[in-house]
Q: What sequence folds into this?
């Protein structure tokens, strides 16, 4: 057995970027592969590949959710899958000038809340194909789907419809 009493950790030439000293705030790069289960929401992501948007409907009170959930927020009853229309209208919108790492290169981009006929809640998504000054509350929009799924919420997005 060899003991090295003068052993040292290897040093590199790169340092740490310090943003603040009290409290200490530093920049650190972090990357990881993550295996994730969609569990009860799996059908939502599978349906996007069939050009369908799936919400859920309460079995008891018939409240229709644009974003799927396992139980009704009002009466607590289980929900069932409910196919949403692929057309709706803009309820409200915002333009994002900053985004997470994946979306930073795409800024600015527009996020809308879509209102569907017969659906009690709203669906948040991206709107492409319209400049910010052309987007209006009430504008009719249609769903589009990525050809090559990434199995994430950005596999569906919306575009303006011709009036």
A:
């Amino acid at each position: 057995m060899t003991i090295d009493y003068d052993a040292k950790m290897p040093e590199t030439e790169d340092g740490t970027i310090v943003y603040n000293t009290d409290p200490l705030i530093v920049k650190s790069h972090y990357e990881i592969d993550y295996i994730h289960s969609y569990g009860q929401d799996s059908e939502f992501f599978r349906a996007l590949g069939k050009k369908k948007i799936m919400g859920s409907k309460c079995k008891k009170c018939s409240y229709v959710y644009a974003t799927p959930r396992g139980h009704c927020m009002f009466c607590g009853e289980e929900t069932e899958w409910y196919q949403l229309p692929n057309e709706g209208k803009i309820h409200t919108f915002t333009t994002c000038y900053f985004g997470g790492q994946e979306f930073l290169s795409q800024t600015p981009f527009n996020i809308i809340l879509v209102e569907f006929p017969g659906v009690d809640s709203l669906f948040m998504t991206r709107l492409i194909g319209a400049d910010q000054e052309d987007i209006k509350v009430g504008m009719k929009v249609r769903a589009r789907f990525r050809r090559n799924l990434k199995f994430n919420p950005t596999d569906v997005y919306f575009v303006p419809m011709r009036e």
User: Anything to note?
Assistant: The chain has one domain: 40-160. Strands lie at 18-21, 24-26, 53-58, 64-65, 79-84, 87-96, 109-115, 123-127, 140-145, 156-160.
